[in-house]
Design brief:
With 727 residues, the chain is α/β, with parallel strands linked by helices. 47% of the residues lie in helices and 22% in strands. The chain contains 27 helices and 29 strands. The strands form five sheets. Strands 1, 4, 5, 6, 7, 8, 9, 10, 11 and 12 form a ten-stranded mixed sheet that branches. An eight-stranded mixed beta barrel has the order 20-21-23-24-25-26-27-28, surrounded by four helices. Helix 12 packs antiparallel against helix 13. The protein is elongated, with a radius of gyration of 41 Å.
């Protein structure tokens, strides 16, 4: 075999490799002019001329393997029927079975649209459009990697794609500039134009793909590509850049070409005018869209999206140069009540004023945003001690607790603040999501402390949050799995020394953790709105129980049922009077227990009044530890006051608690309200309550909460024992 001059410059190992393989099989697909095509068995186009240059320099032949489609060419390479494929762009999926040479043809990436479409400067502007793409081409994979949500429609040929654009079935068709220009002219698509070139895929670089088994060919072809004379490359490019046709010399054809040229000139001039105007409008619109996408429309503060981006940048900056900052999450206490009572317009006004107060409390270098609703977040940059963070938090609390004047009326809110520190409270969190969760947990801890305060995040809170999620998940199945139990605690009438009242109390028998205290799971039921279904179950069980107690003891027996504010807001208890009527029970057989805070909500207090008007008796629970406003006792028809056990637990002949309890009893009796003392645990407490005229007593001295069967079996024994104590 004769060794050519170029082959002589290859290394001995490369020459030997070529001699061993004897030939190189090249797959060529048709219909890619002006890049390449097969006409009458001849390989033509830009790539054909480059392959001809390579043939001259190689000591072995490059043999063509003709295929009918690009997809068929790819399959032949995969199956081993071809060794190389030309005019191929490098993509992640192709790298699995191909190695790639340097590119030797580079073509701009464009979109073809109809003439009336405005110039497209960014691929992102096309994300919601239907766009065509030649099936199997590299552009498909490259675009899907950049914009996975883009609506790409793969077609079998450029001709098909351009026809769909021309008919309005597609907004545009993606292609290389050479290919698009050739196809537009060849198909005489006078209504189409090349519209836009994009920074994301400015150019598509095409080289030779070599099967992994023929890896040494990559280096050999790279030598040949590097040594292509510049004048040859320019010649090939110029000879094929302008598409060449056989033009008829008929007058009609010449006229058509002249008219088309004139139209193109007019279109080009109009397009230039429209482009300048469109670009100005686009710039203005982009600024508006960016502002709308990144700033809260109400307070003009950065929104969650922009804040998240800034937080992520801060966290990433820590990898280059250590930084420290505090993330403060602020939730307004009492905002919902203002929104409900004064209306959303005044609620919005309060949010605007609250945002101004927050912004005035921090430095210009700090970051503030509104996350949504009545929730705000602040990042304090470059902190050096927790004391400085606490000073800011205290200032925020003071500023927000000052009165707000809304439409001439004075309104009050406070704030619950959660604080987390970076990097102390965060590890392995590249975008700051964990920090926001930390602050959220700390904020809820502040609410549990009584609101109008701040709380730091701790790892213990993280575990509590996890436990809380598990408990909520378990609660979703508790009712269906019959894990709830109803217990009954008797209430002693101190005047007759008899028991004809009891309070129904919910208990949860967890399959793994045993009996769980109500204060651990009832708040979660309320938060998740599961309380509605569970409370209805409690009421139905209570009705069954009171029906048995009427039959076995006395027809005037009454059960008290605790009602959640969520039930009144959701109106899920409105059917209760009808349920009692269906069972033949008088309405006074049930009393509802509410808290003082519920009476402050006008909507809830209205529903309480409706229940009272239908014959239900109403007990005000935990009296003395809430707002304890006497105006509520005067305004609303309350039947019972339940003195909180914190006043009863330390009752003594000579202490203030006895005086307070006596005052409550006297006041209630003046208002024709009866009094129940909770938490009675000693004989001394019981006798003192009897002495000051308290009507009822409830507590462990009388009896602990009991299941219904035990309650019924022990009721007479409990009655007789208590009579002995007071007689």
């Amino acid at each position: 075999m004769t060794i050519t001059a170029r082959a002589a410059e290859l290394s001995k190992s490369q020459q030997k490799y070529l001699k061993d393989i004897a030939q190189i099989r090249l797959c060529v697909g048709p219909n890619s002019m002006p890049l390449e095509d097969i006409v009458d068995g001849q390989h033509i186009g830009m790539n054909a001329e480059y392959i001809a240059l390579f043939r001259k320099e190689l000591p072995i032949p490059i043999r063509l393997k003709l295929t009918s489609t690009w997809e068929e060419s790819m399959n032949k390479v995969k199956s081993g029927s071809c060794d190389i494929i030309a005019l191929i762009a490098e993509t992640p999926s192709r790298k699995q079975f191909l190695s790639f040479t340097k590119p030797y043809i580079t073509i701009p990436f464009v979109v073809v649209t109809t003439q009336e479409k405005f110039f497209v400067s960014k691929l992102e502007l096309l994300k919601d459009k239907k766009l065509g793409m030649h099936k199997g081409y590299a552009y498909v994979e490259l675009l899907k990697n950049l914009y996975p949500d883009m609506n790409l429609i793969e077609v079998n040929s450029r001709q098909e794609g351009l026809e769909k654009v021309n008919n309005g079935e597609l907004y545009g068709y993606f292609s290389g500039l050479h290919l698009a220009g050739y196809a537009i002219q060849e198909g005489n698509f006078t209504n189409l134009k090349i519209n836009g070139q994009f920074d994301e895929l400015a150019q598509v670089k095409l080289g030779i793909g070599v099967r992994k088994e023929y890896e040494p060919l990559v280096g050999i072809f790279n030598h040949l590509i590097d040594d292509i004379p510049e004048h040859e490359a320019n010649r090939i490019d110029k000879s094929w850049r302008k598409v060449q046709f056989e033009v008829s010399e008929s007058y009609q054809t010449i006229t058509q070409i002249s008219v088309l040229a004139l139209i193109l000139i007019i279109i080009f001039m109009f397009w230039q005018f429209q482009l300048r105007r469109h670009n100005r409008e686009l710039e203005k619109r982009e600024k508006t869209i960016w502002k709308q996408a990144n700033f809260d429309f109400l307070t003009k503060l950065p929104n969650r999206r922009l804040f998240q981006d800034r937080l992520e940048q801060l966290v990433k900056a820590h990898n280059r140069q250590p930084v420290s900052f505090a993330l403060i999450l602020i939730d307004l206490d009492g905002f919902k009540e203002i929104n409900d009572t004064l209306g959303h317009d005044l609620g919005d006004e309060l949010l605007i004023k609250a945002a101004e107060r927050l912004q005035s409390s921090i430095r210009e270098t700090d970051i503030i945003a509104r996350l949504g609703g009545d929730e705000f977040v602040i990042i304090l940059n470059d902190i050096h001690s927790e004391s400085s963070v606490e000073m800011v938090a205290q200032q925020l609390l003071e500023n927000l607790s000052s009165p707000f004047v809304l439409a001439g009326d004075v309104s009050h809110v406070s704030a619950s603040i959660g604080i987390t520190l970076f990097p102390q409270d965060c590890s392995g969190d590249p975008d700051g999501i964990k920090l926001l969760k930390n602050a959220d947990q700390a904020m809820y801890a502040a609410k549990r402390k009584g609101k109008n305060t701040f709380h730091y995040f701790t790892p213990k809170m993280q575990q509590q949050a996890l436990n809380r999620m598990i408990m909520i998940s378990d609660l979703r199945h508790a009712l269906a799995n019959h894990q709830y139990q109803l217990y009954f605690q008797p209430i002693l009438d101190l005047n007759t020394l008899s028991i004809y009242k009891a309070e129904a109390l919910l208990r949860w028998q967890h399959p793994l953790h045993g009996m769980i205290a109500p204060d651990q799971f009832i708040p979660l039921l309320e938060e998740t709105r599961m309380i509605n279904e569970v409370a209805n179950w409690v009421f139905q069980q209570s009705l069954d129980a009171v029906k048995q107690l009427h039959k076995e003891f006395t027809p005037k027996f009454q059960l008290s049922v605790n009602v959640s504010p969520v039930q009144f807001r959701m109106l899920t208890s409105k059917q209760w009077p009808q349920d009692m009527s269906n069972l033949g029970l008088p309405v006074e057989s049930a009393a509802i227990e509410i808290t003082e805070s519920m009476l402050m909500e006008e909507r809830i207090s209205g529903h309480v009044s409706e229940f009272r008007n239908q014959g239900f008796q109403v007990a005000l629970d935990d009296f003395g530890v809430g707002y304890s406003s006497l105006s509520y006792l005067r305004k609303f028809p309350i039947d019972y006051l339940k003195i909180d056990k914190s006043f009863v637990s330390s009752l003594d002949e000579n202490n203030d608690d006895l005086a307070l309890c006596e005052a409550i009893v006297t006041m209630a009796h003046k208002l024709k309200i009866k009094v129940v003392a909770e938490g009675v645990e000693t004989e001394a407490q019981l006798k003192l309550l009897h002495k000051i005229g308290c009507d009822f007593a409830q507590g462990f001295l009388i009896a602990k909460p009991l299941p219904l069967s035990t309650f019924k079996n022990n009721l007479n024994v409990i009655n007789n024992t208590l009579k002995d104590l007071l007689i």
